[in-house]
Amino acid sequence: MTSGTPQLRLHNTLTRQKAEFVPLDPANVRMYVCGPTVYDYAHIGNARPVIVFDVLFRLLRHVYGPEHVTYVRNITDVDDKINARAARDYPGLPLNEAIRKVTEKTEAQFLADAEALGCLEPTVQPRATENIAEMIALIGSLIQRGHAYEAGGEVLFSVPSMPDYGQLSGRNLEDNVAGARVAVEAHKHDPADFVLWKLSSENEPGWDSPWGRGRPGWHIECSAMSERYLGQVFDIHGGGLDLIFPHHENEIAQSRCAHGTPMMAQVWMHNGFLQVEGQKMSKSLGNFVTIHDLLATETFGGRKWPGEVLRLAMLMTHYREPIDFSVKRLEEAETLLDGWYRAVGDISPDGGLLCADALEALVDDLNTPVAVGALHALRVEAAKGSEAAKRSLKASAGLLGLLGSTATQWFSGEGVATQDVEARIAARLSALAAKDFATADKIRAELAEEGIALLDYKDPEIGERRTKWEVKR
């Protein structure tokens, strides 16, 4: 742990308490966060855990050293929703090829969105389809230990076989409904039992297994991937409140019963729900907003928003509290950022001491609203010309993933921040790599309309395509 850093305290959903965080191994602090199912653009609610756990990743790296923290965020690229989207969007293609097109395009967009939001790349981003062997092995262990059974063309987890099932969500066995994405069927021994493996038809993706050609259930994916990259027991597991039941509860059941361990992760963290302009977000209400919409279109508030504005708007509310995402909130965040950038100018954070009040707030269960307030107070001194305050503000904001540009870059694009432009360029390069020239040309044209010119070149050192950009006014 870095000397002089206050003790980190985190709220644990499992214990319902906030306590000092003591890693299992300070030389290898391990965190797993559930990532996207790549069948459609990620919505603004999906952005919240991406941002929240990026802040925690940054904080852990500061406390324990970057080389001592492993952050895994998965990509779910096998799912019935993906199958349905592939069949809808590419009806003339074989399903496997259509699925590949959907998942590659959607994953590239998600990664571009995460970059635009100022998020660091996780240590590992495993795909479910690259870990099928690990899932099959885990299911085999559950059957051998008497916690799973074959029935009706599926392998199911026996919930009654785990006497203390439900500790995370606080649900009794009698309260539980089937935890898988399938209806309750007569072949289940208990209505709460959930699917681990299901058989695939000729028109569905599948892999050979001891139980026939099939595909994994939703929950087993994360149990297998977290074990592969973090071990049977690790430090922190995160996600949104909506994942507590059934997903995280079932992850715990699978992992503990397969390995005979008393826990899966010692700390469980969950961010609160998000609503839009005071209402639950839904397509039926017409307020379903994607990250891409906010960054690249004028569908929310009649304008595009820089990724850094979205990030700060999220961090102005404590991660465990519900958040009302609104145009007013975005405007408030942008005003704050404008003031901070004017105060620091183009100064480097090198040599800047972290703001003690901001750091103290962050180690207190990621109290980002208090940290933001501390940075705003520091802005006053920076605006008066204090070089030390400028560097401190720049360095301290960096711990929140903010002030990643210079003031010149921030104000030069007339509302288009550097992170937004670079994320869209990354999406264009992904499209070019996939030979999706229509999408690549569309992105170039959109940027050109905003006065941003692109120059493609080949990096001679690594032999890969790169793109430079500049604002043309």
From TrEMBL:
It is found in: Cytoplasm. Its cofactor is Zn(2+). Binds 1 zinc ion per subunit. It catalyses: tRNA(Cys) + L-cysteine + ATP = L-cysteinyl-tRNA(Cys) + AMP + diphosphate. ATP binds at residue 283. InterPro entries: Cys-tRNA-ligase (IPR015803), Cys-tRNA-synt_Ia_DALR (IPR015273), Cys-tRNA/MSH_ligase (IPR024909), Rossmann-like_a/b/a_fold (IPR014729), tRNA-synt_1_cat_dom (IPR032678), tRNAsynth_Ia_anticodon-bd (IPR009080). The keyword Protein biosynthesis applies. One of its GO terms (biological process) is cysteinyl-tRNA aminoacylation. One of its GO terms (cellular component) is cytosol. Its EC number is 6.1.1.16. The keyword Protease does not apply. A motif ('KMSKS' region) lies at residues 280-284. Residues 357-411 form the Cysteinyl-tRNA synthetase class Ia DALR domain. Keywords: Aminoacyl-tRNA synthetase, ATP-binding, Cytoplasm, Ligase, Metal-binding, Nucleotide-binding, Protein biosynthesis, Zinc. Its main location: cytoplasm. It comes from the Bacteria. Belongs to the class-I aminoacyl-tRNA synthetase family. Monomer. This is Cysteine--tRNA ligase.
